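Reviewer 2 asked us to include a model.

Predict the structure of this chain.
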Amino acid sequence: MLYQRTLQKEIEKRLFKGKVIVVYGARRVGKTTLMNQILKKYPEGKYLNCDLLQYKSALETTNSELLHDFIGNTKLLILDEAQNIRDIGKVLKIIIDNFPDIQVIATGSSSFELSNKLSEPLTGRSRFFQLYPYSLEELYQKYNLIELDARLNNILRFGLYPEVFDQPEEESIEELLNIASTYLYKDILQLDSIKRADLILKLLKALALQLGNEISYSEIARLIGENVHTIKRYIAILEQAFVIFRLPSFSQNLRKELGKRNKIYFYDIGIGNAIIMNFNSLENRNDVGGLWENFCIVERIKHNQNHRKYKNYYFWRTYSQKEIDYIEESNGKLSAFEFKWVTSKSIKAPKEFISAYPESSFKVIDNKSYIDFITGR
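Predicted model (structure tokens):
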């Protein structure tokens, strides 16, 4: 089944306003499907897969007449996997400068490549969106809360990639392993500076086994036998490839707060499980707390990003090990959240946090109260 992607409405609201629309996202999250859904509303539109040599060659020119001959009279031009076009930023600048009636949407699975090629030529002329795997909010179109609850165990095992969700277990595992072993590294290994697929896998395994814990770069470096500089560089690249993301520690320089520390989560927890080859049911796992924390945080980020709600994200911890899993900062206000798969007793915010930030809010999110948090209600 196709689900209406929340991002579609946000993109369509910004069409034909003189900006290039850029849609980032990992491979297999549904960028091409989303583009085809948008294209249905514009029969005069044109879709070009820039992985194909004939389109790549035709677009790799700064000659406006040649570009016009190739583009034709289309009003909506979709360039899928646009990072494959040499000097794509310059090409797009020529198109919007010379053909202002044409709306261009460029998609890319490599943010580090596409952003580097676009940033300077398209300064002030672009709008950026990130497409994630399905969000629970999007599934809410078809399933009610009872039905989502029934699928929650499997979501925490297999994640929410479009071709994985709600498939039989055997097919879900096979598809995830395919994504994790092939598509996940396709963009990363094309970089000249990245030569070691074995190091990427070791690093991802180490991160997947530490969900919910603070990351020590030096400890990971010792664990997998590599230097800290290389570990930091690979983590940054994995972020830019939409595999993982960092959550920094929150601190306003109070003496007891930790500063400059990070936690790392996966954009899709099914990928994390595929990397460590653990698809066991939750009752047979000892990392449910980390899975639940990862799931809640990434679903909240999906909601905020899909609805263009701009917030800062953190965790909080003191040297005496008082902690809060997740904090959102918006317009000077702090909203704090603690994630518990099951809540058996009342949990309150640490006194140190309330004392330091008395205007903040605090909520516990468990498997009975998650839906409002995830859908922003």
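The longest strand covers residues 323-330. The first helix runs from residue 6 to 13. We have added this to the supplementary material.
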